[in-house]
């Protein structure tokens, strides 16, 4: 089994049709954000962020922890689901929900925590929205025998006590954001004591906490180094598909900042496997249909370097949909380029549509998907229906980025509607 795990991560940057616009400071800036990154992010993580190498070796210790945390994850055929859809298409899914932390987020949390520990750092800090990223960081830090602090968007903190408990169980300190711990949080609370929080605010609090204490900050999505680490999903899937003698035609993944979609699909794009790559967003957060391609900050406080990306603007306040992982204003720079070049197609679905998709999948395959992942399932349904109409037999593969066992309150709410 372990031989399915690749020994190298894949970086798509050298294979892009156009050079990637570099991160930069705004014109009127009086400090260097790249220098700031140098002081908050583990050095090897930052080196990988800017590498032009196509392959980056996975350290042996990281390989071991990948295996401990549940890799390789299963690649499964969804035969019952195909039957229910009455489609001639074959449908496979890569099940990242089978990792111990419950989602793909552990794939980058482990190497980032490892590189932080290598620098002798005692604590890593991050923010989390839906909770999957914070859970992954809490577990990765514990496995590396270092401490972790997580700033969790206040609405999620209140809506998802199960997530908070899981992070605490793994040993993390968890604060609802905005919090009293940081100057930024206190300022937000003075403006509005019942501020529900946002990923941007939580991110700004995490960075301030790192700067003031000499800790290291771990990044959950959007930055290229995260997409690089997530390529373990697609590379592993290629090994598994080769093993069963199958090649997928259509690759699908849901998109918040873009890391699970990129991690799954980029190795297929890079090795010219497959012919359609579909990135799926939420129609409540119209990033694909309404976003503009321009330099924007990845965080609402404007502390990180600006990235050229498809964005709804750093001050965009997303509606409170339950798929917290998709409530992000921007799209990773490489993915933004691939969408603009039309190498990658996109679709957007509403909460009602994805609920129906999740229900059908749960009833036919037994897995309760995270609502984020249900967006990918919905896209697979669309492609499978199209195949029936056109009498084609494509092989569809989607990434099931996480399980939904801690999202049952969402399903309860949808059921009551
Ligand atoms: C289960 C799950 N899927 C998808 C996402 C979206 O993130 P990304 O686009 O970086 O994969 C998240 C983010 O929190 C998530 O938890």
How do the helices and strands line up, and which of them pair or pack?
Elements: E1 8-10, H1 33-40, H2 43-49, E2 55-57, H3 60-68, E3 75-77, H4 79-85, E4 90-95, H5 106-118, E5 123-128, H6 132-143, E6 147-153, H7 154-159, H8 161-170, E7 173-177, H9 183-191, H10 199-213, E8 216-217, H11 224-244, E9 250-254, H12 259-270, E10 276-282, H13 287-290, E11 292-296, E12 307-311, H14 333-340, E13 345-349, H15 351-365, H16 371-390, E14 395-400, H17 408-416
Parallel strand pairs: 4-14, 5-6, 5-8, 6-7, 9-10, 9-14, 10-13
Antiparallel strand pairs: 1-2, 3-4, 11-12
Helix pairs in contact: 2-11, 3-5, 4-15, 5-6, 6-8, 9-10, 11-12, 15-16
The structure holds pyridoxal-5'-phosphate (PLP).
Q: How does this structure look, described?
A:
- The chain has 417 residues and is of the alpha/beta class.
- It folds into 2 domains: 9-59 and 105-217, Rossmann fold (3-Layer(aba) Sandwich); 72-103 and 223-416, Rossmann fold (3-Layer(aba) Sandwich), CATH 3.40.50.
- It has 17 helices and 14 strands.
- The chain has helices at 33-40, 43-49, 60-68, 79-85, 106-118, 132-143, 154-159, 161-170, 183-191, 199-213, 224-244, 259-270, 287-290, 333-340, 351-365, 371-390, 408-416, and strands spanning 8-10, 55-57, 75-77, 90-95, 123-128, 147-153, 173-177, 216-217, 250-254, 276-282, 292-296, 307-311, 345-349, 395-400.
- It has a 6-stranded mixed sheet with strand order 3-4-14-9-10-13, sandwiched between helices.
- Strand 5 (123-128), helix 6 (132-143) and strand 6 form a beta-alpha-beta unit.
- Helix 15 (351-365) crosses helix 16 (371-390).
- The longest helix is centred in the middle third of the chain and has 21 residues, at 224-244.
- The chain starts with 7 loop residues before the first strand and ends with a helix.
- The mean pLDDT is 95.
